[in-house]
Amino acid sequence: MPVYKAPTRDTRFIINELLKLESYGNLSGFENASADMVDAVIEEGGKFCSEVLAPLNLSGDQQGCTRHPDGTVTTPDGFKAAHAQFREAGWGTLSAPLEFGGQGMPHVMGFAMEEFVSGANQAWGMYPGLTNGAVSSILVKGSPEQQAKFLPKMISNEWLGTMNLTEPHCGTDLGLIRTRAVPNADGSYAITGTKIFISAGDHDFTDNIIHLVLAKTPDAPDSTKGISLFIVPKVMVNDDGSLGARNAVSCGSLEHKMGIHGNATCVMNYDGATGYLVGEENKGLAAMFIMMNAARLGVGVQGLSQAEAAYQNAVKYAQERRQGRALTGAAEPAEKADTLFVHPDVRRMLMDAKAYTEGMRALCLWGALQVDLVHKAASEEERQTADDLISLLTPVIKGYGTDKGFETAVSMQQVFGGHGYIEEWGMSQFVRDARITQIYEGANGVQAMDLVGRKLAMNGGRAVQTLFSLVDEECAAAKAKPELAIIADKVEKANGELKAATMWFMQNGMANPNNVGAGAHHYMHIMGVVGLGLMWLRMGETALETLAGGTGDPAFYQAKLTTARYFAERFTPDAGALRRKIESGADAIMALPVEAFATA
Predict the structure, then answer these.
(1) Do 435 and 406 meet the contact criterion of CB atoms below 8 Å apart?
(2) Helix, strand, coil share of the chain (percent; to 5)
(3) 350-381 burial by CB neighbour count: b if 16+ within 10 A, else e?
(4) Does 424 qualify as catalytic in the annotation?
(5) What pLDDT shows up at residue 222?
(6) Can you give the pLDDT at residue 600?
(7) Which runs of consecutive H residues, i.e. helices, occur in 13-78?
(8) C-alpha–C-alpha distance, residues 561 and 563, integer Å
(9) Are 478 and 488 in contact (CB under 8 A)?
(10) Helix, strand, or coil here: 148?
């Protein structure tokens, strides 16, 4: 039986010591984020996820969801009851606005809980998790009436929400959607069409599900400029907030997937369903990006969470499994064999996982803080900087984070050897569940193109220049401390590779846009290395200060310093190789005619 314990100690270190969340107490929404409050929320949230959600993960994967003849869906045993506990405890309301029943805490707290939920049970966590994107869109684009009607019950998790974008004939190219929205006399719209890959499209958690659906009105341009966004409830909501008749929307079938079996991924049929326009007609793309950006950050957290869960199990297995002897001589002569921990290659995989998960956790939570500062920072300059950084790094958190998250899950499966391939050990599920994170909410190739095609050029390159300067300044300051000098030097060199790759795009992208497309994936990974490198430099500095002060657990902080050095030595050199790949351009990639790829 696989195990999971929410990484509360590391999370508290990042929030309280690295981010120093308490220092923002003068800002709106941060008043209650004292270190004591953070500790209490993190520990209790972690306990709920470890004790309630994690035990349902394997059984949920094995049982899956069931679609009934009337189009309704039931979830695996225990899932609905767990949601009732989650809702009653208010875990879904942590970062939601006070005016709609939320607790108004910083997004950092919500992100921390998202990781715990997903690490314990990714499939379960998608039911309340997808509601966050829908809520974000209604908060920004919905009318006051729509907000009052839908948000309180969505934020309380009495109702949950979905995002309906993709259709059978189109994925990322949403300009091709065919779902139609025909105006009704009362100002509503009749929505007709089919959507696929709709996570949590139907379930038994709640009495109502609020679908956000992309569609085109009759006279709209047949392109992305003709997309509108609509609220389509599963059950109609009366003016007094009570539930009315069932709407003409149903789950046509459940998708048969590689993983996340406990989540109902549905083909959704809209047969003249009643919907309500969100924002302006033909301006649905802007509303969609609000949902997508929230979801992309959440998916980055999912990549981290599956790596963390797999890592915990691999560590436990390596501590218990005896196989062979240490290369330097028997570590435990009284035993017939040493544990897996004596083998450098096993250590390599475990250290890679430790360096990635702890670094990525810091980047995700720091990113969540930037989301807060965009709206809450004291000065316009601070708000602009936060917006620049999180806009730039959102595709990196999603793309690099999930690429490395999947890679880490596979490596942790490898630690188990043959047992990792046997379903009963549970490692297969972490790999299968992690795999989807690279695909949904914009496949990682799309994230990379968003980064190089849109984010680099924003405001004349202001965001990436901000990142360059931030990293250089912190590396220069850290070099004055001997314990950090090697880490700072290597992170600074990786940042130099990122600058060189950026310049190469500027010099070679206009003449041949395929040069940008061919190098986008590698560029995203260089920026991921730099982003995690910055976090490890900061964590190393925080650990060094604590050790010098003689407070805290020395073993914990020394491990931070050692892992920071490991990241610098083992991860940052990749930046140079990735930059050289970028500079090879697109010629060889695009040279072969299509028929040359045939093998028969």
Answers:
(1) yes
(2) 65, 10, 25
(3) bbbbbbbbbbbbbbbbbbbbbbbbbebbeeee
(4) no
(5) 87
(6) 81
(7) 35-48, 57-63
(8) 6
(9) yes
(10) helix
For the chain, list residues with pLDDT below 70: none
Please list, in sequence order, all residues whose beta carbon lies within 8 angstroms of the beta carbon of residue 139, skipping any fewer than 6 positions away. Answer: 97, 147, 151
Place of tokens 């004291």: 378
Q: What is the pLDDT of residue 558?
A: 97
The per-residue pLDDT for 291 is: 76
CB 238 within 8 A of CB 197: no
Bridging pattern class, strands 243-246 and 189-199 = unpaired
pLDDT of residue 390: 96
SS3 416: coil
CA distance 569 to 486: 9
What pLDDT digit, counting tens, does each position of 524-555 carry? 999 999 999 999 999 999 999 999 999 889 99
Is residue 229 within a helix (H) or strand (E), and if so which, with residue range?
Answer: strand 228-233
Instruction: Write down the pLDDT at residue 286.
Output: 83
- Which residue in 431, 406, 404 sits closest to 570, CA to CA? 404
Amino acid in position 303:
G
Tokens (6 digits) for 585: 């351009």
Is residue 560 within 8 Å of 544, Cβ to Cβ? no
H helices within 196-334, ranges in order? Answer: 284-320
Indicate the SS3 state at residue 322. strand
Could you tell me how many residues make up the chain?
600
Rounded to 10°, the helix 427-435/380-415 angle is: 140
Place of tokens 């506990």: 85
**Vertex 157, ends 153 and 158: CA angle to 5°?**
55
Task: Give the residue carrying structure tokens 């309704």.
Answer: 72
pLDDT of 319: 97
Q: How far apart are alpha carbons 526 and 516 in whole angstroms?
A: 14
What does the DSSP 8-state code read for residue 572?
Answer: T
Asked if residue 255 lies in contact with residue 196, where contact means CB atoms within 8 angstroms, the answer is yes
The two tokens of residue 317 are 């297995």
* Residue of 167, 308, 441, 497 marked catalytic: 441
Cα 542-547-553 angle, rounded to 5 deg: 100
CA-closest candidate to residue 362, choices 568, 542, 166, 500: 542
Identify whether the C-beta of residue 177 lies closer than 8 Å to the C-beta of residue 170. Answer: yes
- Axis crossing angle, helix 482-508 with helix 462-478, rounded to the nearest 10: 160
464: Cβ–Cβ under 8 A, 6 or more apart, which residues? Answer: 392, 455, 456, 502
